[in-house]
């Protein structure tokens, strides 16, 4: 199979679709791997490393897409990249199509592209093994990023996360007790914050409380969220419904009730966001102020630690990538873990819930 790895084109996306070690495994299995020149520089991999691993260098994204039966992306392709992909090809990446703009979905359907969303690959135990390392990174980075934006010189309300003797620590509310929420909780606690975790799943709350017994846990109800965000210095949105848009759990009225210059980190922004006032930002302009509250809504948080992210991704995803490369579309559809991640196939939706509200559709991510 011809496999392509283009250079990521989205702003501040430094990750690459596969490391040289992963390329070597594909080449040893008899596949031709085309890598765009300088695709790996942001993650610390040079062209010579890819060539030594068995890749063939090409010099434009258009050529990579045009040569590939199987395209390995990180972020969702831009419109022009979709136009370059072969009809009937396989596309894999962190696609988050539930919040994508409809014209991009239309291209996938028209070209009968089989799109595999890494974030929806589901193991037999129900876990999301390929998404897992990026969720860990996003949660861990939430604390260090929030600490910065609480500083007065970044526009925050001037609070030290851990406080000092005689001065209370920051109040942090984490909505979602999954992988992102767990790692965010761990890091905030390590910095000395007082943490409240909210989730609709009591078993998830039990699990995180068993691990961190000094936190406060609450069931996810409108009243509990209202009460919690009103006293929060930091709110972390860590909600995920794979293949669907994230539900709006924090309304504009709730945001309005928050302390001036407190911080919202909507890590659910990849799936549309769980805060009504959220909209996607980039690392160039990472925050905006709405209702007097700083909002950090960067979709590709792990892109800032591209080398760690790429290595962690390959560790978790390589077996699935090899299976797709060796088995093609038939292999995908015959593997329950991969089949659960198919968003479009043969011109039809599959395991993807699209928005029906017109305004929400217009607000989809690029």
Fold blueprint:
Layout: E1 2-5, H1 20-28, E2 32-36, H2 47-53, E3 56-58, H3 61-67, E4 70-75, H4 79-84, E5 90-94, H5 102-110, E6 114-117, H6 132-149, E7 171-175, H7 179-190, E8 194-199, H8 202-211, E9 216-219, H9 222-231, E10 234-237, H10 252-256, E11 263-266, E12 287-290, E13 293-296, H11 306-334, H12 336-339, E14 342-345, E15 348-349, H13 358-362
Parallel strand pairs: 1-2, 1-4, 2-3, 4-5, 5-6, 7-8, 7-10, 8-9, 10-11, 11-13
Antiparallel strand pairs: 6-14, 12-13, 14-15
Helix pairs in contact: 1-2, 1-11, 6-7, 6-11
Notable traits:
Rossmann fold; eight-stranded mixed beta sheet; 366 residues; seven-stranded mixed beta sheet; alpha/beta; disordered C terminus
Structure overview:
Strands 3-2-1-4-5-6-14-15 form an 8-stranded mixed sheet, sandwiched between helices. The protein has a 7-stranded mixed sheet with strand order 9-8-7-10-11-13-12, with helices on both faces. α1 (20-28) links the parallel β1 (2-5) and β2. The chain folds into 2 domains: 2-121 and 307-362, NAD(P)-binding Rossmann-like Domain (Rossmann fold); 132-299, NAD(P)-binding Rossmann-like Domain (Rossmann fold, 3-Layer(aba) Sandwich), CATH 3.40.50.720. With 366 residues, it is α/β, with parallel strands linked by helices. It has helices at 20-28, 47-53, 61-67, 79-84, 102-110, 132-149, 179-190, 202-211, 222-231, 252-256, 306-334, 336-339, 358-362, and strands at 2-5, 32-36, 56-58, 70-75, 90-94, 114-117, 171-175, 194-199, 216-219, 234-237, 263-266, 287-290, 293-296, 342-345, 348-349.
């Amino acid at each position: 199979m011809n496999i392509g790895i283009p250079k990521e084109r989205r702003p501040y996306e430094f990750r690459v679709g596969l490391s040289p070690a992963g390329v070597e495994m594909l080449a040893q299995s008899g596949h031709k791997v085309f890598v765009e020149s300088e695709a790996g520089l942001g993650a610390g991999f040079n062209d010579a490393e890819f060539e030594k691993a068995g890749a063939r260098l090409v010099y434009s994204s258009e050529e990579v897409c045009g040569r590939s039966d199987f395209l390995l992306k990180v972020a969702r392709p831009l419109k022009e990249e979709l136009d370059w992909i072969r009809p009937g090809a396989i596309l894999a990446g962190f696609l988050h199509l539930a919040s994508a703009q409809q014209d991009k979905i239309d291209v996938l359907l028209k070209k009968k592209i089989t799109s595999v969303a890494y974030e929806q690959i589901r193991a037999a135990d129900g876990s999301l093994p390929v998404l897992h390392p990026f969720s860990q990174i996003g949660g861990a980075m939430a604390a260090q990023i929030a600490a910065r934006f609480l500083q007065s010189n970044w526009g925050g309300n001037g609070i030290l996360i851990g406080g000092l003797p005689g001065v209370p620590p920051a109040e942090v509310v984490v909505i979602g007790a999954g992988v992102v929420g767990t790692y965010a909780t761990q890091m905030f606690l390590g910095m000395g914050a007082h943490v409240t975790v909210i989730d609709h799943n009591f078993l998830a709350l039990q699990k995180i409380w068993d691990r961190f017994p000094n936190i406060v846990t609450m069931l996810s109800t409108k009243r509990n969220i209202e009460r919690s965000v009103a006293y929060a210095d930091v709110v972390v949105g860590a909600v995920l419904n794979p293949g669907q848009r994230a539900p709006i759990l924090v309304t504009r009225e709730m945001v309005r009730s928050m302390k001036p210059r407190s911080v919202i980190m909507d890590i659910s922004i990849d799936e549309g966001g769980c805060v009504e006032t959220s909209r996607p930002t980039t690392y160039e302009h990472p925050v905006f102020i709405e209702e007097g509250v700083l909002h950090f809504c960067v979709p590709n948080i792990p892109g800032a630690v591209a080398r760690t992210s790429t290595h962690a991704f390959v560790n978790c995803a390589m077996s699935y990538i090899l299976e797709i490369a060796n088995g093609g579309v038939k292999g995908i559809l015959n593997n329950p873990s991969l089949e659960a991640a198919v968003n479009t196939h043969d011109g039809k939706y599959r395991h993807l819930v699209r928005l029906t509200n017109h305004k929400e559709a217009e607000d989809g991510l690029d």
